Amino acid sequence: MLSKINLNRWSRRGEYLGETLVNGKPSNENSSSSSIVHQQQVLKHIKFDVRHSIRSVAFLVDENHVVSGCDERKIRRWRVEDGKEVVGTSMDAGSTVVTIAVSRDGKLVVSGMIGGEVMVWNAESHEKVIGFKGHSKQVFAVDVSPDATKVVTGSEDKTACVWSLSTGHRLLGPLKHDNTVVATKFSPNGHLVATATWDRYSIRIYDSQNDQHLVDFPIRVNSAFNQSLAWASDNKQLFALSYDGAINRLDVSTGTAVFQWPIHSNKYPTCIALASNGTFVAASGGSSVSFWDTTTHKQIGQVIQDDRFVQSMTISPNGLATGGDKTITLHSLCDILPRSYFGDSGEQGTKRTSEDVDDEDRGESIPDLEEAIRKLRQELDTSQLAANCEKDSLNEIIKSLRTQNKNLNDEIAQLKESFQELRTDFDDTQHKADSLGQLLHAHERKHQCEVLYNAGRIIDAAKFLLEIVNTLSEDVRTNKLFTDWLPEFTSRCISMLEILGDKASSTKKHDEALEAYSVALFLGPPIPNAVLVKWASVKLIRSSANETLGAAVKFKIPSIVIYQTICDNLERDGRVMEAVEYFRQMQSGLEEYLSIHDECEKWELNFRRRCTERLEKLGDIAVECRSYNEATKHFSTLLSLNPVNRMDVLIKRSKARMLMGSCEEALSDADEIINLDESSFRGYEVRHAALHGARRHAEAVEAFRTMLEKIEQSPYEDIRECRGRYFDAKPTIRRVVEQTIRYMPRVLIDTATGRLHDKKQQAAAFEAHPNYDELVSSMTTEPDFPRISRTVKEFYRYVMLSHTWETDEPLLQQVEHLTVYELESSPVNTKLQTFCLLVRSLGFLWAWSDTCCVDKVNNVVLQESLVAMFTWYRSSSLTVVYLRGVSSESQVPGGLQGSIWNTRAWTYQEYVAAETIQFYTEDWKPYLGLTLSNHKESPSIISEMQQATGVSAQQLAVFHPGLDSVREKLYLASLRQTTLPEDIAYSLLGIFNVAIPVIYGEGDRAVGRLLEHILTGSGDVTILAWTGRAGNYNSCLPIDLTVYDQLMPLHIPQPMNVDEMDSMITALRSSLPNLSLAVKMYNRLNDLPSPSLAASRLRLPGIVFRLTELVHAPDLDPVTNLRVYHATTTTFGDIEIKTADDLTGMKDLHLVHPWIRPLLDQEFLHGAATLDKTTQALRFAARLRQPFGALLFQPVSRVEYKRVAADSLIMVQIREGFPLTDLIGNVHPIEVQ
């Protein structure tokens, strides 16, 4: 008899159900959920016609009734038993019912209407509970929450909303979509809401407690009324029927599509429904419906073919209802699907196994095994019985012989022989019996494996199988029953274990997945790559690669296979650097790898290729994200694989290292690139960049030069053409340097060394400075002109010294072969040395002093220096003023004002030219303790300079070199002194921006030549308004500038106010007989040429008045002790002239009125509105009658004159009543020598 086997029973939920005795047949209890069919009403296949087009159908909870919504504006209730409408149960909706839904407790029916209304009905009384306007357009989708408190709706108005079923108030939304919302579904726990839009690729998941948009799937569904979505019971998986006829299994927790498979038809797929136990889905396409296993994704059962287009579909535990046109069709699922699909609803996809799909093919496997075991037991019993009988016979014979006690040797020998034969037969029988016993035991255990497998306990079945295999004898192993069954059952277990592992892995149940994969690996063939890969992938989630490697050893799989699997998994999971690390470990640590390297070559090449591509891409991405350390790690790992493009990777790593500041490591990469191909320019390009980043600019410039040489010497034309992409900044920098130093002093002092530098040395100094190499190194592709200019100007900032000369100042010839700091100790040398040290401490590289920086022996150099000195001071960064004789002990203002420095002519130019000045006392401390960077901005300095010069601070501040404000500049110069007479002129060259030859020894002629340029260039005749001694250059020019000690000379007619002018014009209009003559005289005077002075000859325009013979007064003037002369004229009346000159006997003297500009009132006319000629002439006539200082001239030839009595101010005024028109002939220029 077959012995009883104790089995533990488990439900599909994994719940322990106790023990069941299996004795060849299932017990009376439910032995496993796979064999259970719920004893619910079995539906019939019924089709019944209704009067209107069906839009939506739904089962009530009891499965005995179906409700439908249609175009007739009513919801009707139908019996499942006979398809008849239940009388008195219709619900009058008032408009077309588009969609309906039944609450899970079966108490409520909710309908969405074509007008946008939502209505809630009592499913038992059929009365309306509540109705409200939900949307502006028709409602395509409704669904009731699991707790029956809320309803979610979707509408043609492109919104979805969540409403309270008790009040009709909106709880959430409107959730705006891009198109009509055709499906809305609550998740089984009610926490999530899924929506789908028609004709837009969008399935959205929302949090039902708020409007948070969680996930978006780009899937397009059809426009069927709320039929395209179905939730799994785990609240994580969502099934969607897409427009292209495919079922999509979506994981909303991760936002990914888990699986997609096509249904039987892609003809207008409309509806999808999920079984309550989650084991299968139904999908409609056109007029047919198919069923699909949710585990294997295979089609099951038969396809239902209707004669109507399926527009709506609903499913119950045992039945399916479809609606189309004016027909509702009911189908019994028990007639369509295998019985294994009807059972306790549990967590979808966790305990259901694929053997249920093939249950029909293997349903009789257990009875077959029981029959085999029964036969084996019978055969064993027979063998044991025979052995016992033979043993009993032998014992009887021996007993008989002993009783007879006869010496029957022959009989005894024969008996012994027979006994031996019996013994042999007995041993054979016993061995056969033992073998049969072992085989029986093995079959019993085999049977137990099958029972466990069919009970859904796959892992237990597999573990039990391992125990069997490890204890099988050789006889049993070779038994045909086992040799046929064992590989087939092992294969089945491995397949199911892999499926279980996949499911657990997809739901992130890693421990369950690892157990399933591990058991499969223990069962598997020598190289079970697929399962091993999955096991390693899950194991690596929670464990390190080392732990995974150690755990894999127990599978008795070759180490090389384990290493390869771990490497592949690490690479696939994005842990590429770890993958490469273990690959290198496999290469160096496994003798096995070396022995079969040829066999692994294909895998290795593929692995290297994948890792190379991913590492390079990851490195590039890290660089883009500025994660340079990560980029370096990726590129370094890539280089350990010795890639084909090693040079390219080295270049990328070098750049990443530079960007993270590891320039020395980047330089090491550059050197390796050069070693790879010394003829290539690329290594030198990277070397240049690394050296530049390390601020080793001189070496960087050399590397760049070598790179250009490599490009130019390349045999390849395309590389030589690359030369145009690069820029050599040296010529450009040199040009900028030349332009910068062109207008700087010819000689400067290097404050660091104290040496004098001429122009050539100044230029060379920049090229020797680190800034030069840095500029060249940083501009390899295009010039940065602003930066070059800025850097060069910053380098050549210089400081000028303004001081008063003392005895034995160090000259250029004394310093040019020494350094400033090597000069012998003396007050003047100390002054120069201290100045240079001060400049260096202020951060300037260059200093200038007029003592040693001007070659006064070289006339050309001296000429250039004197002319350019104003520009040098103006362009300097700072001018340091050394106030000799001013002590720092007194901090009271006044020292600057009364200093020697403020009396010298050269310092006048230096002060007005310099834009930034700092004053230092004789012990080199800031004057008055000033801390300002520019002492010109100090109120104390401004006040003292204003008092010292008599010129306002504003005028000093806005000073500009040139020929404007001539009289003011001459006035300031008149207050200054020079040692040499020529220097008073030379010190003003920059002030007036004129250039004249420097000729020391010419005396006052220098002043004449200066004034000649000023007069000719400016036309300002006030230069002639002076009294004093005339110089040798021209009789109209003074011997020195002290005569310009007045800002407003008395010679010039004084300005008239408006009232005076208007009064004079009125009087003249009535007194002048002919205004046209006044205009004529005005025009003649206006047409006179400007005064000009050339070659000491002055052409002076003006009004010339001839004098009668002078009468010499007998006595000198008692005040001035000058000679006094008188003359009587018709124009001026009596004239008195006081002069040191002896005018006795002089004849044909002339007085000249040269102040044309004031007469013509040009200053007024320049800023006034245009006046007519008559008014201009009258204004001229009015001013002509004002007193003026006339110049007295004596003719020296027929056409030339000479000024006399220049030491006297001859004030005259045209007498009242003199006809001005008589002066027309007096308007002309004269030549003066």
List the keywords:
disordered N terminus, six-stranded mixed β-sheet, 1233 residues, alpha+beta, five-stranded mixed beta barrel
3D architecture notes:
The protein has 1233 residues and is of the alpha+beta class. The termini are far apart. The model is unreliable at 1-43, 345-367 and 1165-1169 (pLDDT under 50).
The number of distinct helices, counting runs of at least 4 residues, comes to 38
- The backbone outline, from C-alpha atoms, is elongated
The stretches of 5 or more residues where confidence is low (pLDDT under 50) are: 1-43, 345-367, 1165-1169
Main sheet: strands, sense, barrel: 6 strands, mixed
Separation of termini? 161 Å
Question: Which percent band covers the strand fraction?
Answer: 15-25%
Q: Roughly what is the average pLDDT, rounded to an integer?
A: 83
Strand order of the largest sheet: 32-31-34-33-35-36
| Rg, alpha carbons | 60 Å
Helix content: 25-40%
Q: How would you classify the helix and strand content by structural class? A: alpha+beta
The total count of strands amounts to 46
SSE inventory with pairings:
Blueprint: E1 5-10, E2 16-22, E3 46-49, E4 54-59, E5 65-70, E6 74-79, E7 91-92, E8 97-102, E9 108-113, E10 117-122, E11 128-133, E12 139-144, E13 150-155, E14 159-164, E15 170-176, E16 181-186, E17 192-197, E18 203-207, E19 213-217, E20 229-231, E21 237-241, E22 246-251, E23 256-262, E24 269-274, E25 280-285, E26 288-293, E27 299-305, E28 312-315, E29 319-324, E30 327-332, H1 359-362, H2 365-404, H3 409-454, H4 458-471, H5 474-477, H6 480-506, H7 510-523, H8 529-542, H9 545-552, H10 559-572, H11 576-589, H12 591-595, H13 597-624, H14 628-640, H15 646-659, H16 663-676, H17 682-693, H18 697-713, H19 717-720, H20 730-742, E31 748-750, E32 756-757, H21 759-768, H22 770-778, H23 785-795, E33 798-802, H24 812-815, H25 827-841, E34 846-848, H26 859-875, E35 878-882, H27 905-913, E36 917-920, H28 939-949, H29 953-957, H30 966-974, H31 983-986, H32 989-992, H33 1005-1018, H34 1058-1071, H35 1075-1086, E37 1092-1094, E38 1097-1106, E39 1111-1112, E40 1123-1129, E41 1133-1139, E42 1150-1153, H36 1156-1159, H37 1162-1167, H38 1173-1184, ...
Parallel strand pairs: 33-34, 33-35, 35-36, 44-46
Antiparallel strand pairs: 1-2, 3-30, 4-5, 5-6, 6-7, 8-9, 9-10, 10-11, 12-13, 13-14, 14-15, 16-17, 17-18, 18-19, 20-21, 21-22, 22-23, 24-25, 25-26, 26-27, 28-29, 29-30, 31-32, 31-34, 37-38, 38-42, 38-46, 39-40, 40-41, 42-43, 43-44, 43-45
